[in-house]
Amino acid sequence: MALLDVKNISIGFPSRHGMFVAVEDVSLSVEAGEILGVVGESGAGKSTIGNAIIALLEPPGEVIKGEVYLNGARIDNLSAEEKRLIRGKKIGMIFQDPQTSLDPLKTIKQQLVESINLHLRLGRKGSEKKALELLEQVGIPDPLIRMEHYPHQFSGGMRQRVVIALALCGEPELIIADEPTTALDVSVQKQILDLMRKLCKEKNVGMILVTHDMGVIAEVADRVAVMYNSRLMEIGETAQIIGNPQHEYTKSLISAIPRPDKRVRRFPLVTYIEDVVERKEEFDVSTHWLGQSRDFDMKVADDGTILQLENLGMRFQITNSLFKSKRRYLDAVKDVNFSIKEGETFGIVGESGSGKSTIARMVTGLYKPYKGAVHFLGKEISAISHTSEVLPYRRQMQMVFQDPFSSLNARMRVMDIVAEPILFHKLADSKAEAEHIVLDLLKLVGMSDDAYAKYPHQFSGGQRQRISIARALATRPRFLICDEPTSALDVSVQAQILNLLKDLQEELNLTMMFISHDLPVIRQMCDRVAVMRHGQVLELAETEKLFEDPQHEYSQHLLGLMPQLNMLQA
Amino acid sequence: MFSFLIKRLLQSFMVLLSVAFIAFALFKFVGDPINNMVGQDTTLVEREALAERLGLNDPFPIQFFNFIKGAAVGDFGLSYRHKVPVSQLIAERAPATLELSIISALLSVFIGIPMGVYTAIRRKGFLSRSFMTVSLVGISLPTFLIGILFIFLFGVILRWLPTFGRGEVVQIGFWSTGLLTWSGIKSLILPAVTLALFQMTLIMRLVRTEMLEVLTTDYIKFARARGLKENAVNFGHALKNTLIPVITIIGLQLGLVMAFAIITETVFQWPGMGMLFIQAIEEVDVPVMAAYLMMISVVFVAINLAVDILYAFVDPRLTIDGGSKHG
Questions:
Q1: Which of A135, A204, B114, B244 has its CA 20 to 30 A from that of A567?
Q2: Which CATH fold would you assign to the domain B91-314?
Q3: Which residues of chain B make contact with A115, given a CB cutoff of 8 A?
């Protein structure tokens, strides 16, 4: 008998337009001590299953069909109070974002003791002792001192450890982990995954690991369930699903994952998904507006250098004080030197807080460098103080941001969003011409013809990122800065966007600075890579060289953490 | 913490100084006090002598300095009309206003917050909907109208409660209180409820909105996933997080209670500072107006300072010195 048995479950959300079915006829089971990965892209219904098992569906969601058995006893038809008794005691849950999963106003001891005393009735002393044990088990150093601290005093990874300790308070038999490492850095992700795996095996706890990341699945899951469009596509042993997928969807999904082990020219697209857009129209750039003269008086240097950073540094004040000696600073970027040649894609890789985005912000002029200089097209643009003088240079460089949901003005139509930079820089003679250019740009990035009249919220994440790219291209830049352009997107969409960027670069002879924490993506996209940590560039090398033969200790460490999909077919 | 306090105190001082300047400017630009003080048959020489005695002939900065000097020790000079020190007038009237506004403030906080919590938790319940509907009335009707309606209903038709004055008061030292006699308490009910109603509905709606937001956060969902009882989730976790942003607004609103007291006091003929202020305006009794302005601003500044300090105690994330961050 399996620990958890989900039989033919369907979950729906009633709405004015009838029932929206989020999960349809899914069956799966978990054994004690086993990790079942549930993988799928956003909207596949994978989190909804987890929420339904623990009876925490967001209202008005409801289980419309099917049964859930825990240790052979049916649990989906229990009363609300009986379900509450199962939560925490029999089934624990871990959420995605450790930053928001803990009550910010209570010490972690208070939160742990509250849970432990509720489920195990150990009294105050006993609960505190148990809390201490749990913190030790999840690897919090100095637990006796740390348990008196508030959540904000812990780093993201440490917080997720506390969340895991909290989920273990009632000694549950099953844990549902909903994207437990998505918000964490790779090195922390590795530690958390190892910890979860160890705890599952030691305590013989079953786990459902919901994630969009095949790498995570490959790392820890014993079996995998692949979901798409609210249905279960395929379920089986991890090695078999990844190495030899049977279902068409699984096949294309796996092929779309950027490969960490070798470089491919283009990403295969997930053709199973209906709304894949391949660009229909090709432009002859030599005659088209996009290829036309772009401030040709600004020549690239003879050696091809387009951007050069010289001892660039940025410092933020953390503590202000009347006395100079008491002020404290954070050096976000320290003495960074590198140059980017025309037409190349230069990658910057590093964990959060390494200063990679700060560099992008200094290059674009959003931050004024604390020291050092930014040379662009032979001019020290960081020293220009006059706005009108710097504008021609700004026009040459554009940026694509990480989050396509917040980087587009929700109250403007796509037409106005993309036309804005053209009109601002007066690149078109008339409004009509600008609009004509926008239509061409939208075609160029693979948007449908009627997109211009719509608002951003009418588009999916991938489509919005296309709009962002169109907007960045609107000033006919030579230099494009992409700051984590695909980390908010699903793999299938990521593959489309990365292909688009590659194509555009070729056609328009763009130079790109590509910032990412994702090593496989870096390998697929970049010619040269700078590895950053604590504001410093530790290693700068040709991409292939870095991946095959990393020199710096930290690069080796980072590469070692990269989830290996070695079950993949060559 | 210390440097923060110093900074806030300095800021508060600057605020008070600017209010003092505005209050003082009243003297210069609102009517001619001499005209209001003396009869028509006073000679020019006598007028001149009076102006000299009141210091009205000194240059502007000197007058301002004297005003500040006096204000700092609570001396705002003589009331033009009553011919007694303003501080004495204020001291006589202050207990009435303070009792009224403190009772109203307590009413609005201790009824408003539970109502807000209730309406947030039982969002669809009949009682919640009734509260919300009634609160709409409370928030949209002007205070004086509510006061008049109350007088009409409870005083004129039902004849349950007195409609004006403080009733019998008991003198304890310098403080005259109406809270120790039945008639005093009965007289307090209508004005206090009238004054509290607007703040109460505002606080209720504020708490409700904030609480609904907190209830959708991850840590509340996680608390449920840990199997905590509904009450523990709602009151142990959600309420405290709800109150943090609400504290600021409530602090400001409590200052407003005192300011709004003017209207309520007029409607109920409550012998407090608000009435004194209204009379002072009618008669261009500038020292009284200035003193009242200063008092209200002191109250506002003090409440704000208290709220800021309170914040640091309630919210562990707020390390006022920028403190050490672990982790």
A1: A204
A2: MetI-like fold (1.10.3720)
A3: 226-228
Going by pLDDT thresholds of 50, 70 and 90, the confidence category of residue A286 is: low
DSSP state of A297: T
- CB of B229 within 8 Å of a chain A CB? The answer is yes
Closest CA–CA distance from residue B35 to any residue of chain A (Å): 52
Contact A399, A481 (CB under 8 A): yes
**Pick from B224, B228, B327: CB nearest A155:** B327
Nearest CA in chain B to A112: B226
Q: List alpha helices for A87-230, DSSP H.
A: 108-120, 123-137, 143-146, 156-167, 186-203, 214-220
Cβ within 8 Å, pair A115-B236: no
Instruction: Specify the pTM.
Output: 0.79
Query: Which candidate from B3, B221, B230 shows the least CB-CB separation from A56?
Result: B221
CB-nearest to B217 from A100, A158, A321 is: A100
What residues pair up with A516 in beta bridges, in sequence order? A349
Among candidates B224, B236, B244 on the partner chain, residue whose Cβ is nearest the Cβ of A56: B224
- Distance separating alpha carbons of residues A157 and A247, to the nearest angstrom: 35
Torsion sign, CA atoms B58, B62, B65, B66:
negative
- Three-state SS annotation for A476-518: CCCEEEEECCCCCCCHHHHHHHHHHHHHHHHHHCCEEEEEECC
pLDDT on residue B326: 37
- Output the pLDDT for position B290: 84
**A328-354 pLDDT, tens per residue?**
888 889 999 999 998 899 999 988 888
Task: State ipTM.
Answer: 0.78
Residues of B in contact with A88 (CB under 8 A): 225-228
Q: Could you give phi then psi for residue B5, rounded to 5 degrees?
A: -60, -45
Domains of chain A from N-terminus onward: 4-256 (3.40.50.300), 289-561 (3.40.50.300)
N-term to C-term CA, chain A: 38
Contact A55, B221 (CB under 8 A): no
So where are chain B's domains? 2-72, 91-314
A323, closest residue in chain B (CA to CA) = B3
Whole-number Å distance between alpha carbons of A69 and A60: 23
Kindly state the tokens that stand for A241: 């699903």
* Rg from Cα positions in chain B: 24
Chain A residues whose CB is inside 8 A of the B7 CB are none
Mean pLDDT of A358-367: 90
Q: How close is the nearest chain A Cα to the Cα of B318, in Å? A: 10
Burial class (CB in 10 A: 0-12, 13-18, 19+), B141: middle
Least confident segment among A151-165, B38-52, B121-135, B241-255: B38-52
Residue among B6, B216, B222, B324 with most chain A CBs within 10 A, to mutate = B222
Token pair for B64: 């301002």
Q: B316 vs A163: CB contact, 8 Å cut-off? A: no
Per DSSP, A570 falls in state -
Cis peptide before A59 (omega within 30 of 0): no
